[in-house]
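pasting for ref
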Amino acid sequence: MKKAWGRWVWLAVGALIIVLIFYNLRSNPEWRDFRWHRLWGSIVGARLDYLLISALLVYSTFVVRAIRWRFFMAPIKAASWWTLFVGQVLGFSSIFLVGRPGELVRPAYIAKKENVSMSGMVAVWLLERVFDTISMVLLFAAAIYFEPVNPDTPKGVSVLHAMHEGAHALFAFTALLILGLVLFRLKATSMTAGALKLFGFLPERPLRTFAHFLHSFCEGLSVIRDWTGLAGSVVTTAILWTINTTIFWLVFKSVRHRLGHLPWLAAALTLFCAAVGLLVQLPGIGGGYQVGVILALTEIFNVSAESATGASILVWIMMSIPTLALGLVLLVHEGLSFRKLEAITEEEERAVGIE
């Protein structure tokens, strides 16, 4: 019950933030003159060949993610590639259906199928997030510093200036993150002991779970000391985010007009803004993700509100529909349902006391 209430609170907060953003956008003259027929025209007039290629690329991301998880899990267990692939698809399908709480479906499904601890898989999932965060910061830096982005509106110039300022903080955060990972791997025993001492006030079971998590995370970080595993993790991460950016770029080209002429790194900058918007996500309809796309296109690249909105809708369709379609096929193949998948996740969470 407590968990359910927590989900509803986050949903309410997310919905409020999205409503406030759109309310403030209405003060923009271009949004006051919004033409719905132009939005419809940008969607139905999109080039199907570009959209088809982007859908195929979406499927390829799950293959790359599964390969990357094999590298991450190598110090723990030589996992089945098929299990990892199915876990990626079902996990992201759940995210599109239930929002952020669906994140735990991937580690729970893989833990169940591979007979490994849930805390270990959460540690691998956290390691994945770290690699993705570093990649996003690097993409953001490339888009900011190597692509001549020249907004032609005062507001766009102001937004770009703020992004340049924020880039310095992101670089510092990323450097500290990498340094912290290396130090934790090299000094795992002493740092784990220090962390357990710091949180010694916790009850026995949560403390034991925390200790197991730190141990599993340390095992996952063995990839840093294994040159083959580290190289494989870095290369697959680079390939993954190159594909993700290309999906955005192809969708933009499908819409034509000004969007069709945006360079690849402009898509990378838009992807970064969309990823920031993922912090506010509503089940089934997204929300913050689309807002991030719209704001980047209208405020930085001076794309019309109708085209930007159409592109955000098409990006969401390209990311969600192929994923959900493949997810349903794999559910039938595995003899599961989303309800059973949720039950597996709750079972694995209870096994290690995750709240």
